[in-house]
Amino acid sequence: MLKSVVFVPSAPALVPELAGPGAVDVEPVRAASIDVLRAATEVGGGLPLRWFVLGDNVGAQSDSRLDGPGTCRGFGVDRVVSLDVAAGSGEPDAGWPTSMLLAGWLREMASIDRLIPIVVDADGATDRSAGSDPTVDAAASLRARLLETSDPVGLLVVGDGATSLSARAPGGGDSPQARALQERIDAALGNADTAALTALTPAECALWGVGGRAVWQVAAAALDGVELTGRLDYAGAPLGVGYTVASWTASR
């Protein structure tokens, strides 16, 4: 039984060791991400939640494994993370997707024992009529895992918004069109508006550097028809990229 969905950015800067001591601009989004996930772990009616994490494959190496420890070495610091408290102490894998590195760090911060990973193609289509599309298949599989169980479950969704939101942006500066798109994304995530997330087009998201489209649309398709209450916990662009923290609570 689905209880909670938490949306956080796929931002390496959330990890203090990667951001450095001077990155005070990211402290609010870092705190919001940790606090919201911690709060979501407490809604299981006294039972521990079984947590899934949904992220894209950006940064992944083809031979990477998520069942042991991973490392943020690719971002300049050998910060070791894991998706499971029982992952062991083997050689950390440097080929994890960025989304899973962030998830592993957040798991530790929120004291969650295990996150079950679901990794999708960042460029996946979302036409539900295309039954062979892997993104559609991922949504159907995720829906079954979230809704067809009596155990309380939670879903962590990791994805970034638009670039070009300020002069600091890697996407090339401040764009009114990018800001308008980010406002739509923030509203959709904050209001649990699955239709609005589904309506995001690959073209507009690619144009303005939106990294989270595929995972948001997989989550939206998986939860189609579920009664959800949304809350926007943080929306900002401290580094010129749209970072959104939001939480959805299922009524059923």
From TrEMBL:
It comes from the Bacteria. Gene3D superfamilies: LigB-like. This is Catalytic LigB subunit of aromatic ring-opening dioxygenase. It comes from Gordonia asplenii. The lineage of its organism: Bacteria, Bacillati, Actinomycetota, Actinomycetes, Mycobacteriales.
